[in-house]
Write a sequence for this structure.
């Protein structure tokens, strides 16, 4: 019979969604149940955040492996004193409390995709002489609230496209499109208004599609995965007619937020508004969409929270990274924001900004390039 009857790790939830963000404090406990007295060399708990990508490609007789790793933080707390002699733990149930400060630096949200993942984990380990280590793990869901220049993402977007019909039909088509804003939370609705002038001889159907695109980077190679998040199909528009079409497309409540602050994994969204025309290239307008956490109202929310005193919570820190020389303050200044790069899409007040580079703290990601996918198909 094993001496260790059970070994678990748990934490106190901070909200109904059971998520954590920059600057939050994780308070939890490690529970160890022993069937008899035992001697322990070490007992500790760690909190860590990591991004990993991995895939293989076969070329002829050779298989090439691509992988990359980024660590955002790793914190450690001893649960029994560290000494040259073993600690005797009596039979029964032992509960060890712990707490960790999540760093306030910009870090990407939790994500799991086809060729990579971003995972935040609590891990406890018990070491005994002449025994295999006992390990307990508990994943935490991290939602980044770092969305700089969020106010500019609340302005409307507009775009338009023209198409001259080809061999199988006559005339031309013009479409003007407006979207109520760029940033949306899961459960929110995208409001779209289109004005369509069908001066052609063909029927055409307005369609509205929200797409997710994930990019995975490793060793100079890139893998992409795209999928449809939601779609609305309207009624066909007859030839030689003008029509205004309004559409409401709701973002699923469980949808992953956009990720722009990870060097090796990027998650972006685009709204495609197009006219489905049989036997012809479909005219379309693409709009960037940024999915943000529910309740996020200010792009500077994190920076405005004020510095957290280092080591203000819990016991001694055993981080793999050195502590800051002074209090952890607001983020450093960032470079000038630039446009998303969607031709034909305009913002009446300001262009939607790209996310700037991430500060190189805790071995974090480097600068993130401007999204490059998005265009109008004439």
């Amino acid at each position: 019979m094993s001496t260790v009857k059970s070994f678990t790790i748990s934490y106190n939830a901070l909200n109904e969604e059971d998520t954590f963000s920059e600057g939050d404090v994780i308070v939890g406990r490690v529970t160890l149940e022993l069937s008899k007295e035992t001697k322990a060399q070490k007992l500790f708990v760690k909190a860590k955040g990591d991004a990993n990508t991995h895939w293989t490609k076969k070329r002829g007789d050779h298989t090439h492996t691509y992988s990359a790793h980024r660590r955002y933080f790793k914190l450690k707390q001893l649960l029994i004193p560290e000494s040259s002699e073993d600690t005797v733990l009596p039979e029964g149930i032992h509960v060890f409390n712990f707490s960790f400060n999540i760093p306030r630096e910009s870090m990407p949200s939790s994500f799991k995709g086809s060729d990579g993942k971003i995972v935040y984990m609590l891990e406890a380990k018990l070491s005994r002489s002449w025994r295999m280590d006992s390990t307990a793990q508990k994943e935490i869901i991290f939602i980044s609230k770092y969305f700089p220049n969020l106010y500019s993402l609340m302005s409307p977007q507009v775009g338009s496209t023209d198409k001259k019909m080809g061999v199988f039909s006559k005339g031309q088509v013009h479409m003007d499109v407006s979207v109520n804003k760029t940033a949306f939370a899961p459960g929110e609705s995208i409001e779209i208004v289109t004005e369509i002038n069908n001066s052609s001889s063909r029927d055409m159907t307005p369609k509205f599609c929200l797409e997710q695109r994930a990019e995975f980077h490793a060793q100079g190679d890139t893998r992409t995965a795209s999928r449809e998040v939601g779609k609305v199909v309207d009624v066909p528009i007859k030839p030689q007619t003008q029509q205004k079409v309004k559409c409401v497309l709701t973002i699923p409540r469980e949808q992953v937020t956009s990720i722009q602050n990870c060097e090796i994994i990027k998650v972006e969204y685009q709204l495609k508004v197009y006219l489905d025309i049989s036997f012809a290239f479909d005219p379309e307008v693409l709009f960037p969409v940024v999915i943000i956490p529910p309740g996020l109202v200010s792009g500077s929310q994190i920076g405005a929270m004020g510095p957290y005193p280092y080591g203000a919570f819990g016991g001694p820190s055993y981080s793999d990274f050195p502590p800051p020389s002074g209090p952890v303050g607001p983020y450093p200044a960032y470079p000038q924001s630039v446009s998303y790069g969607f031709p034909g899409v305009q913002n009446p007040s300001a262009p939607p900004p790209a996310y700037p580079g991430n500060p190189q703290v805790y071995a974090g990601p480097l600068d993130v390039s401007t999204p490059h996918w998005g265009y109008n198909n004439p």
